Automatic annotation (TrEMBL):
It comes from Amycolatopsis eburnea. This is Oxidoreductase. It comes from the Bacteria. Keywords: Membrane, Transmembrane, Transmembrane helix. The keyword Transmembrane applies.
Amino acid sequence: MTTESALPPLDPFAGIPDRRYEVKAADLLKPGNAGLLRWRRQATNAPIVYVEDAYITGTLDLRAADLKYLFRFERCRFEHPPDVREANLLGLVFRKCWLPGLKARNMRSRNDVRLIRSVVQVDGADREIEETTVQRGDDRERGMPNAAVNFTDAVIEGSMVLTRTVISHPHGKAIHADRLVLTGALLAYRMVANGEVRLPGLRTGGNVNFSGATLNNPDGFALNGNGLHIGGSLLCEVDNYGPASQRKRFSATGIVYLPSATVDSDIVMREAKLTVSQHGPIAVDAWKSNDPYLDPRPALVADRLRVDGNVELSDGLQALGTLRMVNARIGGSLRLAGAEVRVERGKSQPYYDRALHLDGTEIGGDIEATSLRVPAGQLRLADVTVGGNFLAWNSMFRHPGRDVFSARRSKIAGNFQLTDATIHGTLRLQGVEVGGSINLAGTRLTEPGMRATSSFSLDVRTGRIGRDLTLRDNNGRPFTAEGGVNLDGAQVARRVDLRGSELRSLPPFHVALDAGDVAADEFTLTPNFPPEGRVVLRRAHCGTLTDNDEFWAASSGIELEDFRYDALGRGIPLDDDKALDHRIELLRKAMRGYRPGPYDQLAHMLRAAGNEEHASTVALRKQQFRYEALARGFKFFGPGVRLWSWLQRSMVGYGYRPVRALGWLLTLLVLGSLWFGLGTDDCIHWATSDPAHQIIANGDRCVVNQQDTGLQWNPVIYTADLLVPIVDFGNKSRWYMHGTDNWVAAGFTASGWILATTVAAGVSRMLRRDN
């Protein structure tokens, strides 16, 4: 008011307007000194219309006005919403004012537009209905409620400031600013909006700052920024202005809706609180859909978002509802460190219970999720591309009985580090490509998802890892997988490390570790305890195998068909037969039955290391176990198989101990020579008148030469002729034995055949081995 008034300043927020301050809006608009110029500051010639401490009745109607004035209202209360639609002004300021609304559609301001510490209140009984006409043939539609503040299609050649202003339209839109153009920034520090803040198509040259703001629209969009373009950053974080006790966090009750938005710098939501109704109409309608990729209760929707800088949803952010950024493009990093996200658990298929949904998103920097807490819900990152690292140590994800973290086919240029985490549910990394290492040291995985064919806690099937896959203990905290680990077909450039791990399986599958078809430079399989379940290493291959007794003692055995390794981390010394026997026994117990391949692999590895003697021992034991398995398979012929095995093993070591054959030959030759060279039989009754028969006595023994060939009796040569089959030295068919001597001769002949057969078999094996 003017200096002539002795009244104290007006309290525009009092419940009952004070009529002593009443000024008719029509009087303000009269020309001359009685009109606008009466409110003009007299100190300068600046084109400012300054009104203070006034209760303005009637409608302040500046619609379509072209006035080169900046209008500033301070401590004013308006009976009706000011109308500046289509107006062209120098600027518009409301400070500590109370308004029942503001109509500014299509206005143009050459300076800032400010509503500072003001209240814009549209009550249900007083809310104004603006006419909208929609031509549909001969039909006309009327009765759409207006917004509390309407800046649709307005152009402001400056900034819009809504600091500490309360804007309420509980049954409609608090702010309606479609396609608003700001050359400057949108500053709404600690603003309170009850109703939708609608900004689709917004264009700003600077930041959009809602730090410390409170947006309430539980049954719809708290902030609708569909397709907006921000020239700076979007800041929805804590406002630290003033003492620490007065810090105020950004809060949105309702959906923060930013699909197809473009932000030239960062999106910052540190310490924000995002809440979406779990029972509102949007959620109810969405639950009826069969679209498996729909998120019916999103706290944040930013599909196709484009951000040149970072997206920070971190440092104490709390979200009750899905954080959804599908097919987004983030030039910097996505930070989730210290955040907490939860979503109500779905009860039927599809589940619709994703806490974080990033399918198809490209992130130029890192995903930082250190100390991220997800007490309920799934983290879904299918087909995500990360230019840096995924870092999430000390995190907690809980989604028991389902996939709690799913990153199928994602590509991470750096490392995937999820150490010392607690995970309830399945960690599914199927088909993931990681340029560095996957490090899950010290992580505990429990309550995996149950499927028709598996119940693994960790699934890295067909993954491609540029360095290490680390599933080991970390400072005394073991890696634990209560549902087992599936690495089937994974390719690891360097090491698969299970040092100090604890692997357990669940019924009905009972697989603690499936590493079939895995290829790596090194396997370190040294768990703390024997894996509880079956271990599968079919067709796996590594350069170096480091293991321990606990690994080979898996409770349900190990499948080792075509498992190949080039060397042992702890080699077997040439003179350590006990170590070799121990390893053979480990193999035998682990397989729980005869399989030739693992013994062949061990022998091949030893032979390649120059340990030929131990390689032969392994091959010999393999044949022994083979015959034992055959004997168990034949009910009636089992004893014969065992006898044949014993003969081969004792005589020539199944061909791997050929020196034994020479020893047996010499022994039999000595025994035969002694037997046939000594005797006590009477020679008289062998006399015959046939001159072709010659009786020769050797001590008390008689032998008969059935043909007079001039051969002289020699028991050594005769024994040699009996022992060597096929080859005839001309003795065994010329000399005739009778009685016991005949049976002994037959025994030597049979022994010779057996010995020759086993020697031939051994020689053939040696030739094949050498080849």
